[in-house]
Structures
1.
Amino acid sequence: MSEGLGEEVKTNPQGDVITAAPAPTKEAKKGAAAQRVVDPDYLFLQAPREKTFITGSEAAKEAIRRANVDVAISYPITPQSETMQQVGYLYAEGYVKDYYRGEEEYGVMSAIAGASRSGVRCLSATAGPGLMRGLEVISSWPGGRLPAVLLIMCRVINAPLAIQPDNVELSYMLNTGCLLFHAENQQDFYDYSLAAFMIGEKPEVTLPVAVAVDGFFVTHARGWVSLPAADIKLPPRDCYHEAVPMMDNENPPIRISRDAPIQKSNFISYQMHASWQQEIWAAQERSRKWIDRWLGGLIEVVNPKAKIMIVASGSAVSQSREAVRQAAEQGLEVGLVKIKSVRPFPADEVRAALDHAEKIIVPEFNYVGWLAKEVKSTIRGSERVISGPRVFGGMSMPTELILEYIMGTPNRR
Amino acid sequence: MALETVRVSPGFQKFLPKEYQDLVENGPFTKERKVSELGSFKEILEEHPMCAGCAMTLFIRVALLALPSVENSVIIGTAGCGRLALSQAAIPFVYGNYGDTNAVASGLKRGLSVRFKDKPKDVIVMAGDGGLADIGFSAVMHSWFRKEKFTTVMLDNEVYGNTGGQESGMTQKGMVLKMAPNGKKFEKMDMIGLAKTSGVAYIARIAPTNPTRVATTIRKAVLIAREVGPTYIQAYTSCNIEYAIPTPKVMDDARMVEKDRYGFMEYFTDEAKAYWEKTEADRRKLKGPAEKAESQETK
């Protein structure tokens, strides 16, 4: 367990440090032991913070450091690998109680399903093709009422093979029943990931939460992140106050099966499955008050009265903010609606924010335009929506491109 | 332990379902029951929907009886005939996705180990040949390589019984079954050999011809998994429907197959052997007359 934890720093022939992070020191191990549990409100909203300039992967690591995670299960895939190897260091330092590299994503997501059923707080992360491989299991987590946090570092889905950023994979997550937050930057990735544990474990929610971020643009780039002290952490998972019994055989000896096969050809079976599905989506809705409380709402609105409004999530928000600034330089007021929570989708908030808009632009980092479809299906007057600009396959989104859509309607579909 | 975590107010005990009262008072919780006592107490498995004459049901019934700590056991299954019975037993049962049993068990066991440091929680995978050797193969192998501390029991009926009789990797070469219209093209998978190669601590091959031996084998596997590492039991549990075995002849078939190619064998790693010998020596020291009588049954 403690192999490779020496003080020696290994380098390659070019002199570069081989590990992505320094090996844990004895001092670091003391840090984990010294952590104290604090109230989530204090950790999220009140604790004094200091600014640090770190990558998205490091921001995730800092969230996990304070998350009191019991079991973390990893499998490498670019651009996610660095985060879960950093979590490995946290395990070596004592911040995470158990950790291993699984066989592949189907096995990893299944093991998360097992760990969550046991009543512990658990974490995994993946990207693009890895998410596709694990999707059968991930789609079954909500039905199992399994709180867990899955970090998604968005990446192109094959084919052709590529590792570049593209968030089309989130369109596959929309109908799983998992909560889905989409982080704009490194700060969001820290905040959303940490809050996700508490939101998903709330008794009235009891659901898995996926926190997505656009790969490379955020994971491998540095940004300013305000962090509270490292000596505080979340309370542990309180599994006996959740919606379903744990699979720990601490219940009365009666014939209960949390995972009962409901496969009979009779109306009671159909009704059971139907009501179970309805309950999952109702539980999603019940998460809203906690997203409001800890993440400051499901959306953020800039220039709420502007006649031209942009709606965006993830990295497209950062590009849109700059486009809004540049448009203002040209004397044009443009508004922005940032979607923080994709599931539950902030339908009422989006409708209210866009009610007055004459033109709505939805820039996205994917070909299919899943966010534009969400917006169109939510608001009155969907002809106001211009589904674009859209870039994909790893392309970046110059602010000029967004400005073109603001000023005109190129490539209107 | 289940009977302590949730307590029933004394005044309300008589209003609880009769089944609950029977299970608590007469079931195998907190007390070891013997195969010879089957039928005289409230069992973990009752009113299952399995086919008449199903050898798998007998095996499961005995296996559940043999668990060393019923009140601290969790069973994991997958699609297949076995879970039709297991999901109606009075032990928490996890039914996840197809082929995920050993991955789910890995996470579950680790999670339980985090939460219950001073109380052994036994995780037992019980699934069919298709679930473990075909679709679940990767998860099975990697749980063994990682030395995960739980027991895997293969209910080997050499066919996909629940889906209507398709050939599996554990089917004998040449058998004509659905999806193998010209006969199976390759040999029955050597999961026991693979288990040895993977470093599984205790391996057994067994047919349900001797219920007491089934019970002792299960108990051994669960206890060794608790302390040493992964254990594997491969049990011949014929499908009398798909292999057209007349109901009264099911045990005759089991005896014939046992003699032909499914004879009892067990294998220990050195570490497992040392642990088991010590455990048995300690047990003999504490043995009372009743247990001596039970050990006579196995001879």
Note: Chain B has twelve helices and seven strands.
2.
Amino acid sequence: MRSAITVVGASLAGLSAARALRAQGFEGRVLLVGDEPHRPYDRPPLSKDFLAGKVSLDDLELSTSDDDFDWQLGERAVALDGQDVLLASGERLASDGVVLATGARARRLPGMPLPGVHTLRGLDDALVLREELVAGARLVVVGAGFIGAEVASTARGLGLEVTVVEALSAPLAGPLGDEMGAVCAGLHQDHGVRLLTGVGVAALVGEDRVRAVRLADGRELPADVVVAGVGAVPCVKWLEGSGVRVDRGVVTDARCATNVPGVVALGDCASSYNNFAGQAMRLEHWTNAVQQAQVAAATLLDKEVPARAVPYFWSDQYGVRLQFAGHRRDGDRVTIVDGDTAARRFVAVYRRGDRPVAVLAMNQPKLFGRRRRELAAAVPQPA
Amino acid sequence: MIAVCALQDLPPGEAIRVDADVPIAVFNADGTFYAIDDTCTHQDASLADGWLEGCQVECPLHASCFDLRTGRPSGPPAKVPVRTHEVVVHDGHIYVQVAARESALA
């Protein structure tokens, strides 16, 4: 019987876990520790409507007056001692259960920090960046992943001249494959964004402020603003010496349990075994944070774990909504089963042999929802 | 009162979006009709595109559910219920009586 549980990380994953603990009947203390001063807020709009100035901070806030937790915001966790959490302030939070939800931080380019060069992960990043996205400015986005593509889309809508640089042969070739990556490339081109693929960045040019991006092939792209969307690194360094196993994230089983009893992990900082994919995955996606929260809470409270859903993510680029469910590997075969890629309105299914393993849609939420459920129906349940 | 469609155009398990001042989604949940504001929070997803299961509709984007009877969300990012509206079936047609703007449960 636990009496106090500390949740480290007060973003969507941590908040969702704290709520799940309450929803599953935990009546003891729930301490929510967050290193940002802000209450939990919704991150997806940071690269879209918030960056464009269309929604306010109030619109992003996720917590409500129903959230019955002991908030410890603006506090950094520096160590985990058994099930006690040590804060930078020197305070020790005595707990008999710990939820690790510390998320991830944006990877940086060599040469950062340099004024004019940004990453976008949190609210403060978005506040600084949006001041620099003025019409007519030249923006170079490094990395055509979700953050990069969404920032490029938003900036283009704000009237900036945008160039996107991607080291792979196509945007989102990792999650979506080359063929669908080429369709994503078309979204940029449709909207007058210059996309350079298959080329890396060698250096940022500028002393007091960025003025260009030098590519690996020697070309220099003039830049007033640069955004680096080159991935994220899980925030797990503070766990060194705790005994918790880390390998590209906190290692957990499908139930979010770590190797340390009474400690669970979820969200962007966790490398969790995924039944659908049949492997450990670090899923940096919104829905995963919410769904894993139910699992983590059940595990900590020794309750039956709810069924895991299929991995799912979405992205909004240039008015087109991409939705993807499942897990793709090299060698999977993709076919369009509805609609037309040229119209940017279609559903594509990926198959491994004859077995559907993933589905991608652009602007087809209803059909996508049905296909996603079909994938879920095929998920093998834990023994 | 807003005319929605003929009864046969909204079979069980389906939803239809009505473009009113604020868009409204009308659902046939196993033969019972419900109507709620169509938009999940941040105005970025249409609930009429969501998955209907019993009296719950799942946002097609966030996968959080809304209870068709109360408008209450099951999880983030929605914080407040969406408005619910009365559905009237008359002479083989479906109509919605739009609720006052402030009537969502506090």
Note: The mean pLDDT of chain A is 94.
3.
Amino acid sequence: MKKLILFVPLMIFLGMGFFLYKGLFLNPKVLESALEGKLVPYFELEQLEQSDKVITNKDLIGKVAMLNVWGTWCPACKYEHPYLMVLARNKQIPIYGINYRDERDMALEELKLQGNPYEINIFDKDGRLGLDLGVYGAPESFLIDHQGIVRYRFAGPIDQRIWADTLYPIVKTLQEQAVKDGAS
Amino acid sequence: MIRTMLIALCLFISAIASTYVQATPVDTFAFSSAEKQKRALSLAHELRCPQCQNQNLIDSNSPVAKDLRLQVYQMVEAGKGDDEIVEFMTSRYGDFVLYKPKLDPKTYVLWIGPFVLLLFGLIIGFVFVRKQRIVNNSQVELTEADQQELAALLKQDKD
């Protein structure tokens, strides 16, 4: 018994070492999302293409979809764009764009040149929706279910690997759930 | 004469330096009272920028920090309480924005861990000290044979 107590510091050391070692491989840029499990926050914003058309949070409800925060000022969004085009072409999931802190003309020009993967594009000029979503950079993507509840948030550009390993399994579960509930 | 000039120069330089130190980075915001300003600034100092991670909202130049700073100012100006503002931030950006995490089951290790470690250290230290004292205090009994051997050794040493 008395001998055992001598090993306590070693145990503590090993325990701490284990967690610190694991910590080396965590990405500090990945923040937990406070929004997961909550409804997409209320908003009323202009559509990017048509300034007289108003889009609200209700327009996003009904389908399993992906919200994608982007801007022409964001280099990682340019990197991500071709893959979003692939997703749109293959009709994997409807993508709703949130054009974040951008200039309308530049954003439209960009979509004309690079292609438009978005079903709806929301023009969040002053970043208010971004603020409510807890966006701290771009690109960021949110998976929402058919009830409009945010299920997953991914910060950073989506590519083949991220989609296959991380996002698609979640999308699949959400879509199955939606079918079960009788939504499309 | 030269001395007074030097002193004046020093005062002048320190005055300039202190205005630099107090300058806030980019934006200006008109508060209705000095008390509100003080509260808003201290709140913005306590909240962490989600983008740049190791800076608070005041120090950071990132657009997000600027937005959040403004949000804090506006909420203070609108008469919201500190708790309400912190809740606003954590409901969007998570507990991450707090430099001082809340006490809840997820952060127990963080808050209580150091005290547990200290307690462990004290217990172990106590056990060791006690053990050593017992060893020191116990008289070593020498047998007749030991005495003779000791005497022989001492004698050897002298020779």
Note: The mean pLDDT of chain B is 81.
